[in-house]
Every structure is written in C-alpha cells, then in structure tokens.
Design goal:
Strand order of the largest sheet: 3-2-1-4
CATH class of the largest domain: Alpha Beta
Largest sheet: 4 strands, parallel
Number of strands: 7
CATH architecture of the largest domain: 3-Layer(aba) Sandwich
Radius of gyration: 19 Å
Helix content: 40-55%
Number of helices: 11
Length: about 280
Amino acid sequence: MQDLHLLPISRDLRSKTANLYDFFQRLDGVLVAFSGGVDSTLVLKIAADVLGDQAIAVTAASPTLPREELDAVHQLSDEIGARLIVASTNQLDLEAFVRNDSMRCYHCKTDLYRLLAPVQQDTGIATIVDGAHVDDLGDDRPGIQAAREFGVRSPLVETGFGKTDVRTLAKSLGLSNWDKPAAACLSSRIPRGTRITQQKLLRVEQAERLLKEEGFRHVRVRDHEGIARIEVDRHELPNMLDPVRRDRITRGLKALGFQFVTLDLEGYRLGGSVS
C-alpha cells in the first residue's frame, strides 16, 4: 500500500484516500468498469494496489468508443499493471439506444452491465465498481440509475471524492492521465431525439481527430443533421479563426460529409447542450 504520509495532499484528502484503500481491503476482488478516464483509472489504481490480480479492468468496445480511447485503455491498464478484459458490444443493435431519448445512457449502461455477467462467472468475482464520484450525483445521470439497479458500487462516492480530489490524488500517484479532459461517448454528439447511426458516429470521431491534429485539446464536434458545430476551449477560439487553419478544417469536415461547418462561440463545455 502507498505510504499516504508521503503524498503531497491535504489532510482531508489523505483521510478520504485511506478510506478508499479500506474500501478495497474489505473485498476479495473487483471488476472495474474501466473507461480510461481519470476517475475509473484512479479506482483501478487503488484496487490493483490492494487486490493485485484480483482487480480486473473491464472495458466495452463498441462503435460509441473512439479508437484512441480504446488505445488509452490498453496503455493505462499496462501502466497500472492490471489485467484488462475487453468485451465487444454494439449498442446500435438496441432500438432503445438508437432512438436517442433522455434514457439513452441508461440503455447503454444496462447493456454494459449485462455484458459483465459472464465475466463475473468466468472470474469468480461478483463485485463491480465504477468511477462515479460525488460531483456526478447532482447531474441528470440515467447511467447511474442503471448502475444501482445492477448493484454496481461507486467507491469514490462512498468515500466522498469529488472531481478535484480525483485529479489531485491521481497527480500525486503519478497517473499519466490525471489532467485528461472529461470524455463522453460519441453518441453524446448527436442531438437528443435524432437517431444514432454508425455513419454519424464515425463522422464525429474523424472530425474530432482532425481538430486534435490541428492542436486543439478540448474538442467536441456536434452533428446536427449535416451541420458540424465545433466546440473548443474559449481561449483557443482565436486559433480557430486563423484563415489557413480555418479553411483546412472546413475542407476536412466537408470531406467527411458535413454540409455546413460552424463554430460555437460559447466554446467547449461539458454536456454541450445537444438536447
């Protein structure tokens, strides 16, 4: 176990961290629903520190997960030294998901947790944990409802971690993604009520990759039926207006099938208001 007194963290966070270690010490093993984000990475790190090879990361590979995120999952599990199981699924086979209503995330998470049932049987590990933290609880999160229905536990919630706590501890533990921007599945780029298709997901993924290659870090491309609405950090908005870069981006996105390319002057924001 990490010597918590050597970590450059506050007394309050040190107490929460001790409780987080205690959480896993009371278990024989866990399956960590692992997205590669900083929250589930921290959970996997602590679980692996305590439980060794009885802490197993499980990731669902699907059309809604960008390829670079799947690559990051492999890299981070290797970094931590945890076993990774990648289970394939396709939410596009679920009409309840494809119709993209307010319960989309619920249907997606329900599909994920059903996928974990055979993993539980194969590994003999019954407990599933996720990376939800207390700041998530105030949001409209149907996915959290699904987790509760399947008995998934949230150790960060149970020990009082907020997002700032997560990033601070992750940095102190040397996790490489401690400052990684929040990520959401590709379906979140499609306005609510608009059907989700493989073509739209692929187009959004390619569009965001293009923008990242142009040097933008926090990026969303919202697909409004052929209209690309680009979100970047506000301080990066002037960079988007460079004539050469602007034309290059416009040509690139139109080549992907977008008819119009627009820039959201409010900039990048979590959630992006696609409802």
